[in-house]
Amino acid sequence: MASVKDLRERIASLKNTQQITKAMKQVAAAKIRRAETARAQARPYADALGEMLRDLVLAVGSVDHPFMKPGRSGVPPGAILMAADKGLAGAFNSNIVRAGELYRGEHPQAVFYTVGIKARNAVRRMGRPDHATWPLGARAKIDTARDVAQRVADDFAAGKICEIVLISPKIVTRISQRPELRRLVPIAATEVAGETAPGGHRGAVEFSPSPEFVLSRLLPKYLEFTIFSAMLETDAAFFAAQLLAMSNATDNAGKLIDELTIAMNNARQAAITKELLEIVGGAEALSG
To answer: In this model, does residue 201 exceed pLDDT 70?
Structure first.
């Protein structure tokens, strides 16, 4: 049985840990609000971009753009793996990494582009030390998204990869996030047209100089903003997962403190009882 001193030291250590997890919980709660605000501010632009893309696809017969054509055959696919820069968020990063490993199992020659330090480290462990990588926590995420989109678009146009897929977290609820795999390029016209909003094709939109010209300029922006939106969602999902993990850690530390306090009180009572028995035994021996 542990001594009273050992139990007291363990309780003090747990109280320090509880203070840290409680502080991290408060920080995550503040940051998730900012991340969700950024997502909400970006949503109108994303909706307008999607509507314009659907209108253009329905308005044109064909467009001479690499994103609308099948990729080069015989080359590996390209995968953008997106995770957080930091840990202490439960199984958040490991779930995304597992999705990336499953994709690599199906496509052993896949070319990875990573966003986030945890994703970069995971791909390095897969045996791909030299690959394009960017941090998630950059101050200007739109610049990072622009760089990522430019790199993967250039590789796709050059025939180095046959498609571009994105593996990133999707927020289901505040306490649930799951990895999602989406194919970004090539863009199938039938898929885009099938996503038309309930209001249907507006039909009264005029494009200048031509729908084909506007679509060819819009597609790179669509890829760029899709990656940017995924970065914002990854940020929000990470802080939601960290908030839950730190809340559970704080509660568990409290339970352990209560259990160790009871054990310490029992040990102290046992020590006092032992000393009393020794005193009584010594007194009886003297009197005898």
So the answer is: no
**Rounded to 5°, angle at Cα 44 from 39 and 49:** 110
Judged against a pLDDT cut of 50, whether residue 197 lies above it is answered with no
Three-class SS state of 77: coil
> What topology is assigned to 62-238 in CATH?
Pyruvate Kinase; Chain: A, domain 1 (3.40.1380)
For the chain, helix (H) and strand (E) counts, in that order, are 6, 5
What is the pLDDT, as a whole number, of residue 272? 86
The answer, as to whether pTM is greater than 0.85, is no
Dist. CA 137–CA 102, nearest whole Å: 26
pLDDT digits (tens, 9 = 90+) for 206-218: 666 776 777 777 8
Q: What is the mean pLDDT of residues 6-32?
A: 92
Looking only at the bridges linking them, the beta strands covering 164-173 and 176-185 are antiparallel
Phi then psi dihedrals of residue 81, to 5 deg? -100, 120
Q: Which two tokens stand for residue 45?
A: 């632009």
β-sheet with 133-134: strand ranges across:
133-134, 111-115, 78-82, 164-173, 176-185
Cα–Cα dist 281/288, whole Å: 11
SS3 of the chain: helix, strand, coil, percent, to 5: 65, 10, 25
| CB-CB contact of 157 with 66 (8 Å) | yes
Contact between 28 and 242 (Cβ < 8 Å): yes
CA distances for 137 relative to 164, 235, 237, angstroms = 23, 8, 13
Q: What distances in angstroms separate CA 256 from CA 11, 17, 109, 260, 261, one per listed residue?
A: 8, 11, 48, 6, 8
Specify the 3-state DSSP secondary structure of 201.
coil
